[in-house]
Structures are given as structure tokens and as C-alpha cells.
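Hello,

Our lab assistant flagged a job as stuck in the queue for most of the afternoon. It eventually completed. Since we weren't sure the result was trustworthy after the delay, we are filing this so someone can double-check. Below is the sequence as submitted and the structure that was eventually returned. Let us know if re-running is recommended.
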Amino acid sequence: MLIHKSVTTAIFALLVQVSISQTASISGKVISEGKPVEFANIFLIDTQSGTGTDTSGFYIIENLKAGTYQAEVSCLGFNKVVKSITVRKGEKSTLNFDLTNYDMNLGEVVITGTLKEISRLESPVPVEVFKPTYFKKNPTPSIFEALQNVNGVRPQLNCNVCNTGDIHINGLEGPYTMVLIDGMPIVSSLSTVYGLSGIPNSLVERIEVVKGPASSLYGSEAVGGLINIITKKPQNAPLFSADIFSTSWQELNADLGFKLDAGKKASVLTGLNYFNFQNRVDNNNDNFTDMTLQNRISVFQKWNIQRKDNRVFSLAGRYMYEDRWGGDIRWNKSYRGGDSIYGESIYTKRWEVLGNYQLPVKEKLMLSFSYNNHDQDSRYGKTSYIAQQNIAFSQLTWDKIIGRNDLLVGTSLRYTFYDDNTPATSTADTLNQQNQPQKTWLPGVFVQDEITLAKQHKLLLGFRYDYNSFHGNIFTPRIAYKVTVDPKNIIRLNAGTGFRVVNLYTEDHAALTGARIVEIKNELNPEQSYNVNINYIKKIFAKNGTFIGLDASVFYTYFNNRIVGDYDTDPNKIIYDNLNGHAESKGVSLNIDVAFNNGLKINTGGTLMANTLTKNGSTKQQILTEKFTGIWAISYKIKQTDLSIDYTGNIYSPMRLPLLGESDPRSPTSPWWSIQNIQLTYSGLKDFEIYGGVKNLLNWTPNKGNPFIIARTNDPFDKEVQFGSNGQVLATTNNPFGLTFDPNYVYGPNQGQEHFWE
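-- returned structure --
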């Protein structure tokens, strides 16, 4: 009997063991941006089987029968993802989830559109958000260059010699774009050209882009759009980070970041950026440097202070110094400002401080403040431009929810001191001219009410009043309407006005260089604009794990008093005046994001636009603006080898270029042109990545198809140029086309193909 019972037990155990061995299991990892996702829930639809991930993102579901299952993963902060998998008897199947493109980008917090923290899903203003991982697909030494990967945003070079530039949004020039750091308007006017260089990439949490006027919240210069650089909070930053790369052109860029605790209630984040390029390259054989030589260092530090009830207190500062020059390859500093060997030499010193302090009261009152000092000592050949700009800014906002009304009320004060050695800051008396720095006061008040009409409908009303000490009263209303059909379908309508006060010498590089005479016909009045924008977002989550995101916009802006440089009336002059007519900027934009479950990701976009000037019934395309721009980023990670491949690029349609007259042999329009790059990244080492690649795969440069780019590099001081009685340049034996020296014929970088590596 005992023997029989023992045999029965053994047989039963054997059968159970065989049964278990024949069941299947599913295991894998859940990650986002290469990092494990903890505590994600995975369950098999229409079954009782499920589990959660551990701290390494790993999960396993065992004791499954053979068959096909629909596995769903869900986690706070991410959209649900469903994948199909077929398991066979006795097999251990692997199913990984990458939630990078499902991290509820629409739900992340943004501040730029409404001047307050709000989820992107709820924001009535369309805000595009870019994280550092996006820009790492094509590493650059500055944020200025990195923005070439954003649809509708183009870094525009304004000088072939010193390679200074600005940021165009939807074809509008740099002065129409306001650049902020942590919401503070510290990069403007004089510093627009240089302010985006030297911001340590290691400190950037994200970059928020708003296209279209935002003057009702931010005031002057926010006409074309906003670029808000959000820096990391010290508590969210790694203890140490380093990104160092060099190129075959002998560029060196080092980006370092580290944090430390300063006592129990303070944390400090420090960033250092250093860029050096001292290689004289003249591939187009005009005896001028193809690229500007630079030596730049920037130090940034941010303090976060812990306070009672989690009230905000942060303080940050940055210092930047840059020495850049371009010109005749024989130039050295002994020729600076002289008329024998031509060079453009720019010394820039800049420091800034900014902070946010939440007042210790029950109501949510936030005091923001910033101050910056920008000193520039420049020589454009023998032309001297020495300028100083100080901007002090403070703003107090009250954030209050009353019923269905989410109110934001604020007051601001901006003081700008500007002094230079040009006629812009001198008295009108030409016989007894004296220096007269510009001192501009700009107090303002604004109110914004975001009204929840219904669960799916929001209305935003905004109004701002500013008083400019030179130009008087300025009013900028705003309206926005958002319809949330569902979290995957959102429609936004925005309309508003903008204004801009112009300073030519700080904003238009062409007013300082070359041989053209600057003529200002009348006193320049502030520009005014009227804008409307319709935005539609569509998110598609396929059952096979494929994600498709669509972001489409239609925009239109109408300008009064538009100030433009007239290069056409007289080839020897740049004539500035308020346009006796109107200007328009209009177009459509589409962004498409696709993520396949095999690891392939595609980000692409295009903007079709027209930027026109209408005067005396005649309409023409604005100079140096394209009609179409497109970008793409194609990424694929080979998980078995920890190797990632990124193929990025942009393409631009022809644009009208500034010529020196009908006899100028250079092309009046640019060709279609494209900059394309490829990068390989190996991430198999703990806490390290190794990358390398090729920039400008097509080896494109603007001199191809042109006899020259810079006119008369052989005579940059126009010593051999002869003029007629009417002031026109005469064609001679050594000047057959009747030209003067001109470095302003520029639309793209002169840098050809280069290799880079970490």
C-alpha cells in the first residue's frame, strides 16, 4: 500500500513537471530613451495573466499556453502600447517595449505658450518641444546650429566673412524671434547674433518653440515666434556629464556639466562650454577664410534653494567670452582696424543673471528678474563698431483659478541702455555731433484668462498694454481656442497682434559691413503685425506597436510699417524705411513622426510659405527667404550590437539674393540646396557613448555654380574702384563687372564635408 502510494505520487509529480516544462513564457524589458521604465504594468488582454517591471525594467509572465496574445503595457506618464506575440509550447519568448515615442509628449509640462506651467495637452497655444536626445542625432557646438533640425526654423548666416547669423522662423528674420532662457528675455537686439552661442548643451532640459506672435505676453520682438531654452533643475541633472568632440576641420568642442549639494537646502548645477577653431581654410580659393576662426568659452551656474511649502527660488548666471575673426588668410591682429589687410574681428563679452522667486504668501505670486550686459568691440575692415547694451527686466505674475477661469495677471518693467559709435546714438546736429545713448523704459501690464467652456473646449483671452518711452502706447490683444476631440485629436486656433521696435545697427549686419552706404529715409516707426494660426494634432497608436504623429499648421501674418532694407533701388546703398505698403507671411507646415516596433524612427517635416512685400501695387518675394524648407531625422538602433544609426538633413528651396547691380555675374537666386549628415553611436559601455559620423555628406557649398561668393576680395577696401559723376561704379579693366567689395551675398554655410568623432 505504501509502495503503491509512493509510486502514484512520483508519477503525478512527473506529469506536473512535464506539463510545466511544456508551458510557455514571455519576458523582456520596458525602456524609454534607452533607460529602464520601473513599475510598468504588462498584461495579456482577455486573460488573467500579467505582471510588473522591476527596477531594471525587466518583466516575465510564465505558465502560458501556446497561442497568440495581445500584450499591453501601461505606465504613469506614457500612452498604452499593445503588441501582438505568438508563443509556442515550451518556448521562452522575448517581447521588449520601447516607450520613447509614447511618453505622452502632449502631456508634458510646458511654459512658453501661456507663461505658466501647463501640460502640453491642455495648452491652448501650440508648443513644439525638443529634448536633447533629438539634437544628439546631429551634434553641434552651439544651439544656434542645432536648430537647423527644427521644421520651419533656419539658422541664417548674415555675413560670409565673420559668419554671424540669426534665427528665422517661418521665413521671418532673426529680430522677429525672441530667445529666452528659462522664460527670461535675455537674448535680444545686439545679442541676437551671438547670444545663442556658448549655452552649454549639457544644461539644456528641453527647448520649446512657439511659432507666431506672442507679444501679448512677451512684448516687443516676439513677433515671429519664441525659442525658450529650459535649463535642467539641479536635482534632475547627473552628477557629471561630458561631451567632447572634434572634426576633420580641426574644430574642438567640449561641453561639461556637474552638480553638487551646497548644504541641506541648496543644489548647484554648473556647465562649461569651450569651442575652438583656428584652422585657416580657403577651399574656394578667394584668399578669404571659408569659416570664421573662433575661440569661445561660456560658464553657466544655476542654484535651486529649497523653501517651505515647495515655493520656487532659483538663481542662475552665465558669462561668455568670444574672439572670432574672418577675412584675408594673411590677416593677424596687427592689421585689426587697418586698411591694408582685410579682416573682420569681433570681441564679445557677455554676462547675465536671472532668477525666479515665489513670494511667501498664500496666493501664487511669482517674481522673475534678469539683467544682462553685452559688450562688443568689432572691426569690419577699417569700420569700427563698439557697442554696449544693458537690459534689466522684472516681472510679477499672479496665477489664480476662479471657477472655470484660469487667470494670469502680471506687470513688467524693462529698461534698455544702448550705446555705440554709430549715428544711431548721436545727436542730430551734424556740425556739433555728440554721443547720446539710448535709454528706453518699457513698463507694461497684461492679463490672460483661460476659460474652460466645457470638458473639450477652452478659450484663452489675453491683452497687454505697454508704454514705450519713445513711441508711446502699444496694445497687443490675443485670442486662442482649443478643441480636444479626444487625447489623440486636438485642434487649436490662435490669433493676435505683435509689435517690434527696430534698431538697425544691432539687428542688420549688412548695415555695418561692405561698401554700401546706409540711408535711413525717415524716422522709423514700430512695426505692427496681425496673425492667425490653425493647428491640428493627430496621434495614431497601431496595435502592432507602430506610432504615427501628425502636426499640421496653417499660418498667416500681415505687417504694417514693415521695415526692410532696400538693396534693389541703388546697388551702392541699403535704404531703410517703413514700407509704404504691407508685408505678408503665410504658409502651411506639417510634421510627421513615425516609430516602428522594430526600432526604426522617422521624424520629418516641411513648411511651404510665402514672405512677400507689396508696394505701389507690386508684390515680390522678400530677399533671403525660401519658399519651402524641409527636415528629416531617420534613426535605427541595432539592439544586438548597441549600435544606433542617425541620418539627418534639411532641404531649402531657392531664395532671392542681394546683387550689386545688373552686371553682377553671381546668380540672382540660390539653387535648391541640402545639408545631410550621418552618425553612428555605440552605447554598449556603461555610462559612456562613443559616436562619429560625417556632416554635409553631399559636400555642398554655396560657391558651386557661382564665379565667386564675396565680391572683390582682391580689393576689399575699394581702393581701385572708380565712380562716375552720378555715384555709380564704373566698369574698368580690373573691375569688369563694376562691383564694390560685398560680403553680404550669403545664404548657406561655406563649410564643406567634415568628419566628427568623440
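-- support follow-up --
The delay was a queue issue, not a problem with the job. The result is valid. The chain has a mean pLDDT of 85. The CA atoms of residues 495 and 532 lie 4 Å apart.
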